[in-house]
């Protein structure tokens, strides 16, 4: 006889192991797609009973093996059939794989997940199952023992059935490619994990304070800290600032503001009109322009060094500076390449190397004998404080070296930053 015959094969299995409809069906899951394991198993169970009945009638098998088989077909319906057939089955054995707990497990975990997702905004989801514990091991052993090429891993069945319930209850579609929420079940460790897709928001900020750092650091006030407050409407676990470049703690960013992308980590809410979020105080001002995505983050950061920036500086000199000298300074720094060795003050976090950056133009106006104000437009990444001071010769040429007197930047503002070339900006 054809040893892949499914009646023959399933009969062989249930003579040895008690199985519920689901678990029996799952051993042939790839046959009759669309049936579902429960119905597939029920069809096999009923056919097995009829086949055994025939064999007993024709003297091929005796009644005791029919009783054994019936006792191993763990379904309420089997009881009724046994009574109708006048057979006395002492006990209906519990399913070898799931202990007749399958439906209860699916129900409990679905409920658990629904409770977990309560109050969370999302459009799409996907369910995954990393481990079905001992149930999975027993199921796998059966597949190996009886060589069942059409069986499916019980994890697939579990996540699919839960997915079906969630789809119905939530009225949301599963998305296997890029879901808002990924639900991961680990039955072995009784754990439920949620992976929530982060949200990205593009905007600009102005930093109005000279005592505020960009990222959350040792300063009480930071742009990133305020950003978390500004975006608290998302009820996120965390908000991370990805900015196009940075300014020092004592430097303000005014004018056009600095472009950034906020990464909103594990948000509970997703549908917020970000353009309506207003947030400003004495230290910062935010403008939220549109939603962004994770691909734009490296582009925003990568492009920054190419983007032009304009600064306003107040410069203090050790000696008197004249109008003529300042005019010469303006002429000299017209489209001038400056060579900058990593500034002493950032050596602890930056590699020591020489960079060449372009100064497009400089404007300077005298305020008093030793002070002047200056507008400087330069390539992204140009260190302005060092362009002015010279950083003991590490930046060359500098205002100090050109004027032959020590100059120092006493206050600095970024007043204009070229916009990144991202989509929709
Ligand atoms: Zn079962």
Please describe what this structure looks like.
- This is tRNA pseudouridine(55) synthase.
- GO terms for molecular function: RNA binding; tRNA pseudouridine(55) synthase activity.
- Keywords: Isomerase, tRNA processing.
- It is a single chain.
- The protein has about 425 residues and is of the alpha/beta class.
- The protein has four domains: about 5-85, no CATH class; about 100-195, THUMP fold, CATH 3.30.2300; about 200-305, Alpha-Beta Plaits (2-Layer Sandwich), CATH 3.30.70; about 305-415, Alpha-Beta Plaits.
- It has helices at about 5-15, 20-25, 35-55, 65-70, 75-85, 100-115, 135-145, 155-170, 225-230, 295-305, 325-330, 385-390, 400-405, and strands at about 20, 75, 125-130, 175, 180-185, 190-195, 200-205, 210-215, 220, 240-245, 250-265, 280, 285-290, 310-315, 335-340, 355-370, 370-380, 395, 405-415.
- Strands 7, 10, 11, 12, 13, 14, 15, 16, 17, 18 and 19 form an eleven-stranded mixed beta sheet that branches. A four-stranded mixed beta sheet has the order 4-3-5-6.
- The longest helix is centred in the first third of the chain and has 21 residues, at about 35-55.
- It is rod-shaped and about 120 Å long.
- Zinc ion (ZN) binds near residues 19, 22, 95, 97 and 98.
Describe the secondary structure blueprint for this structure.
Elements: H1 6-16, E1 19-20, H2 21-26, H3 37-57, H4 63-72, E2 73-74, H5 76-84, H6 102-117, E3 124-131, H7 133-146, H8 154-170, E4 173-174, E5 181-186, E6 191-196, E7 199-207, E8 212-213, E9 221-222, H9 223-230, E10 238-243, E11 251-265, E12 278-280, E13 284-292, H10 296-303, E14 309-317, H11 323-332, E15 336-341, E16 354-368, E17 371-378, H12 384-389, E18 395-396, H13 399-403, E19 407-417
Parallel strand pairs: 1-2, 3-4, 3-5, 8-9, 11-19
Antiparallel strand pairs: 5-6, 7-11, 7-13, 10-11, 12-13, 14-17, 14-19, 15-16, 15-18, 16-17
Helix pairs in contact: 1-3, 1-4, 3-4, 6-8
The site of zinc ion (ZN) has 8 residues, from strand 1 and helix 2.
